[in-house]
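Researcher: Can you fold this with 5-O-phosphono-beta-D-ribofuranosylamine in place?
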Amino acid sequence: MRVGVLASGSGSNLQALLDACRPPEPAEVVLVACNVPGAGAVERAQRAAVSTWHITDPADGGAMLATLRHHRVELIVLAGYLKLVPPAAVAAFEGRMLNIHPALLPSFGGKGMYGMRVHEAVLASGATVSGPTIHLVTSEYDRGPIVAQWPVPVLPGDSPATLRDRVLAAEHRLLPAVVLAAARAGRPVRLTASAQAFGTAGELPDLTRQLTSG
Ligand code: GRF
């Protein structure tokens, strides 16, 4: 499955995908599109010899679709992409566009909920659990059908930064699992957490347990 990644930042989730989507796996990152010149995501793509595209006008759906089609992208992953995807692209990739969010949706999502604000809001709420959500992208921010979530404990004494790091570690495991499962199935499939692992993902250890035990 040919994967296109849209990013705006450091691209650590992109890196997790670049590391995981290699032969003989049935997924390959074929394009990294970024709206921020010099972002870490661009450097990571270049280091991996993956084509990059600088998004000059994030609202230009025609340009985005043309580029995605040129690279024959079959699945889009928004990995820290901070702009709204144009409606034409969302419609054209309905059911084939994933976003990763660093909290357990439907809580702590929506417009303006990104980056450290998410973790600050989780801590302020007193929640004892957080963790990444991967969902299908629809026209509403953070509201598309949920594909996978990974519960991560909020620990006493957590700062937004320590919580972010713990959630990010889970993101780096969950996102490749979801993309590889999608590639195997030919479309995104829901992964469910069991006591030990994610159903269709196979060999994933229980990250929650690993993290709580230090
Ligand atoms: C991640 O926390 C992701 O959940 C959110 O943006 C952040 C991107 O981080 N959407 P990175 O650029 O992948 O390091």
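Model: Folded with 5-O-phosphono-beta-D-ribofuranosylamine in place. The radius of gyration is 16 Å.
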